[in-house]
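Figure S7 source data.
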Amino acid sequence: MKKVIVNTPDKSYDVLIGKGLVKNAGEIIKSITGISKLAVVTDDKVNALHAEKLLDILKKDGFETEKFVFPNGEQSKNISTYSDILNFLAKNHFSRTDMIVALGGGVTGDMAGFAAATYQRGIKLVQMPTTLLACVDSSVGGKTAIDLEYGKNLAGAFYQPCCVICDTELLRTLDGDVYKDGCAEVIKYAAIFDEKLFSELENCGGNISDGAVYRCVTLKKEVVAADEKDTGERQLLNFGHTFGHAVEKCSNYTLSHGKAVAAGMAVMARACIKKGLCGQKDAERLISLIRKFGLPTETEYSEKELFDAVMSDKKRRGGSITLVVFKETGRCGLFETDMNTAREFLAAGLE
Ligand SMILES: NC(=O)c1ccc[n+]([C@@H]2O[C@H](COP(=O)([O-])OP(=O)(O)OC[C@H]3O[C@@H](n4cnc5c(N)ncnc54)[C@H](O)[C@@H]3O)[C@@H](O)[C@H]2O)c1
Ligand SMILES: [Zn+2]
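Tokens for the predicted nicotinamide-adenine-dinucleotide complex:
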């Protein structure tokens, strides 16, 4: 088992990474939180595959447990499911000394996390990520949210868990496509921060090792510690996301986040060659790694469609936007600029 300690001004907590950690979940939760009553929040798919085993273990370890199950998928990450979770907790007499365990992908983690942040002004939370994306990204850092009618993640809170238990054995049941979405985020970390990880990915045959998950979590922790509230260095993690979100939006969210981000990274890499910010070799190396993982490096949408989507991005501030530019393998930078220049980058990346 590997351990990463995340330090934020609010709280310090452990991210435990390894195979078979579900078996030890009871002991871990007991020793870290000391609580005895918890609600496992999960989606129907993960419920069928993994929840019973976890609940059996928790019950054997003496926990009083409840389970809340919702239909899997982003369409459930809304105010109605969120409100159902809060009412479920109230109906089952959860108090401020009880806890939520979020067992699932980013949808579960984000929504159960927001419920934990707000129920009775905050109850304890343990994240148990079951997708690669959740392991390397959404379960760490404390961003929780639900979607509103007008856009994704529009209501939420910064709320850190008491610990993250990342049992990588659970990833074995993932659909190939969902796994690939997580791979896009792993490639992103390597491209922004870590040439060594990048080389490992070039030779891993499409399988992300526990060591690579550990490395990504360590990188995220370093960034989060420096910038919990996402105003400075944490923005580097948005590499591929400004244009990626635009691609996602243009597809009306039929294209998954990971695939959209993959295309967004490739567009930015091409733009950075044209703008003289990076060498052609490094950008091509990134594009060919994305391709190697079977992820898209192009998009079918026009410059105009994509730019309209960028204009509605919540990361835009008035007339300016912070682009994450690719400089070389393992190094990106922040570039605050006006919307015209952002459009030029987009146009250059699509050529
Ligand atoms: N909080 C953050 O910092 C952050 C960061 C990135 C993304 N996100 C959010 O994360 C969400 C996407 O996360 P996701 O890709 O994990 O989506 P998800 O939670 O919807 O999971 C994807 C699919 O995989 C299934 N699944 C989950 N675990 C499984 C397993 N072990 N075996 C088989 N199937 C399994 C789910 O049922 C679902 O159908 C988005 O809502 C996004 O906004 C949040
Ligand atoms: Zn992402």
